[in-house]
Amino acid sequence: MNATSHRYIHALGPAVLTRFYDPVFRLLTREDTFRGRMVEHAQLAPGQRMLDVGCGTGTFALRAQQRQPGVEVHAIDGDDEVLAIARDKAARAGAGVRFERAMAWSLPYPDGTFDRVTSSLMFHHLALDDKRRAAREILRVLRPGGALLLADFVAPGGAPGRAFVWVLRRFEHLADNLADRLPAELTGAGFSGVAEIDRHPTALMPIAFLRGYKPGIS
């Protein structure tokens, strides 16, 4: 089921701002460095299948395929407008990324389809119960021994950061990130070896890179 009791949150909040997503993201996150780290930490290899969950305008999915042409890249998002932008980018780049409309908690793929699943700056849009559903669904579509790479906002450090966090805790969907609950949620969903492997500073908050594995050997 695609149903959720929570309101859908677009990339920049109001849907009318979606067209500004790419320039805003570039400005606030040092996107080239961030996406490069994502590709590096995904540890892609020719012959693998990768799924990008919450792909937005497709920037990372396209970069992943360009860096590793031998990888079969799929990408999903729940927003038709960002998917139209992503497909246009792919067409102009001559890339074969397969974009589909789907929600993170209801993925249209059989069990064990992917060697890698990635997700960047999407989980903080989800309420806690949807985070849990999405984590279990991602685990389902990973092959045994496959890995999830999740990148999302975490609490900044220092006194100014703590004050900023106090304000942001009022936003329900961000609270889990700011309280550093994502690793425990991934472990609770069934992932093994969950760990923060890197951190990327931005003009807003740092982005943590988390990696976890589906138990077993394919």
From TrEMBL:
Biological processes annotated in GO: methylation
Example of a GO MF term: methyltransferase activity
Keywords: Methyltransferase, Transferase
Residue ranges occupied by any Methyltransferase domain in the UniProt entry: 51-146
A Pfam family of this chain: Methyltransf_25
Electron transport as UniProt keyword: no
UniProt-listed CDD domains: AdoMet_MTases
Name of the featured protein: SAM-dependent methyltransferase
Gene (name only): smtA
